[in-house]
Amino acid sequence: MQFTEEHNEIRRTVQSFVTNEINPFVADWERDELLPASELARKAGALGLLGINKDPGVGGLGLDYSYQAVFAEEIGTAHDGSTPMFFGVQTMMATPALGTYGSDDLKAEFLVPQIAGERV
């Protein structure tokens, strides 16, 4: 596969997110036995990272799965296991069926806010 500049931009965005928003705080989160999932989701949503391969009509970027794979690879560089698992479940388990088979009403109520990082 040939990566495009758009793939590389996703990669750089996720690398920066992991470097600035996750890795510096992992030790504190583990000490306090918490993961600030809502806060991380809001920040990731603002960057467009929660709807990479979702339809633009619901707030996604409309990119193919290869871009989602780049996201998964880079979020996996986090210094913990909880954060990559959280984002993996949100983007690759909880929302694909809703995006494909959900009614417009269900998408508006659940998918749109999830992609924006407003609902965890």
Number of domains: 1
Unreliably modeled segments? none
- Which structural class fits the helix and strand makeup? mainly alpha
User: What does the largest sheet look like?
Assistant: none
| Total strand segments | 0
Please state the CA-atom Rg, rounded to the nearest Å.
Answer: 14 Å
CATH superfamily: Acyl-CoA dehydrogenase/oxidase, N-terminal domain
Structure keywords:
mainly alpha, 120 residues, 65% helix, Butyryl-Coa Dehydrogenase, subunit A, domain 1
Give an overview in words:
With 120 residues, this protein is mainly alpha-helical. The chain has a single domain, classed as Acyl-CoA dehydrogenase/oxidase, N-terminal domain (Butyryl-Coa Dehydrogenase, subunit A, domain 1). The chain contains seven helices and no strands. It has helices at residues 5-22, 26-32, 37-46, 65-75, 82-94, 96-101, 104-116. The longest helix has 18 residues, at 5-22. The mean pLDDT is 96.
TL;DR of this structure?
The protein has 120 residues and is mainly α. It is 65% helix and 0% strand. The mean pLDDT is 96.
SSE arrangement:
Layout: H1 5-22, H2 26-32, H3 37-46, H4 65-75, H5 82-94, H6 96-101, H7 104-116
